[in-house]
Specification:
Blueprint (H helix, E strand, L loop, with lengths): L8 E5 L5 E4 L7 H6 L8 H20 L5 E2 L8 E3 L5 E3 L6 E2 L8 E2 L11 H6 L1 E2 L1 H17 L4 E3 L7 E3 H9 L4 H6 L12 H14 L10 H24 L2 H7 L3
Antiparallel strand pairs: 1-2, 3-6, 4-5, 7-8, 9-10
Helix pairs in contact: 2-4, 2-8, 4-7, 7-8
Length: 253
């Protein structure tokens, strides 16, 4: 069970204690890049690429392994960033095997991280690949906003709101674009294509539907993000050539 969008298991040690040895990813995790100190802000194009890399890692364990694997703890802290700002899915310690095909839901003890758990898993322990799809949708919202999965306005837990809820509010606002602009990471400034933000928001909303049957597969998510990546890179090139200073610099003027 390995592809290049996953942190590679190198070996293990059984002397005195049990240890798993993974490849070293030197550039921290996505949560640190979005909210930590000492990191350069991620550009919009980098965020889309990180989303696509992570989606491919999940698609592999859902679609290309027998039996199917379910990660069960997808979150920004478990997406590692390498020196080239490419992403790898990490921490398969809670991964669960399902029956071949993975089409049915299983019941299990609830593990994972609050804020990323879908209702059917948090309430009943129902596990299917759609558990990972929901959590990935939350990560997409994080990439847009740089906010935690649970947003606290004060120290009181009663004032906490899930990131899913905040984006649902924005999606239902009379002016959708204005509602979203209040959630977009300030570190992006105005350097993003609002139409691409809208598309990623709608994709995240599809991933975080309350009914797991309404959520897309990770294969469908990968296809959507491949399209979004292409349009975002095209926007980035257009933005480059619309900047007179950069055009002059690149043309030697």
């Amino acid at each position: 069970m390995f592809n290049f969008m996953q942190v590679r298991l190198i070996g293990y040690c059984t002397e005195s204690s049990l240890f798993l040895v993974y490849e070293f990813i030197e550039n921290g995790n996505l949560s640190q890049h979005l909210r930590g100190t000492g990191y350069e802000p991620l550009s919009w194009v980098e965020r889309v690429q990180i989303a696509l890399d992570s989606a491919r890692g999940l698609e592999y364990i859902h679609e290309h392994t027998v039996p199917v694997y379910i990660h069960r703890d997808i979150k920004s802290a478990n997406i590692l960033i390498d020196k080239n700002t490419r992403a790898k899915v990490a921490d398969f310690g809670l991964t669960k095997l399902t029956e071949v095909g993975g089409g049915t839901s299983l019941q299990t003890r609830v593990v994972g991280t609050f804020g990323y758990m879908p209702p059917e898993y948090a309430r009943y322990g129902d596990v299917s690949p759609k558990v990972d799809v929901y959590a990935f949708g939350v990560v997409l919202y994080e990439l847009i906003s740089a906010k935690d999965a649970i947003v606290r306005s004060t120290e009181s837990a009663s004032d906490s709101k899930g990131l899913v809820y905040l984006f649902e509010e924005a999606l239902n606002a009379p002016d959708l674009k204005e509602g979203l602009k209040r959630l977009i990471d300030p570190k992006l400034g105005d350097d993003y294509p609002i139409d691409a933000i809208l598309k990623m928001t709608h994709l995240a909303n599809a991933c975080t539907q309350e009914d797991p049957k309404l959520r897309p597969t990770m294969r469908s998510v990968v296809v959507a993000l491949m399209t979004l990546s292409s349009t975002s890179e095209f926007w980035d090139m257009n933005a480059l050539y619309e900047n007179p200073g950069l055009v002059n610099l690149m043309s030697g003027r």
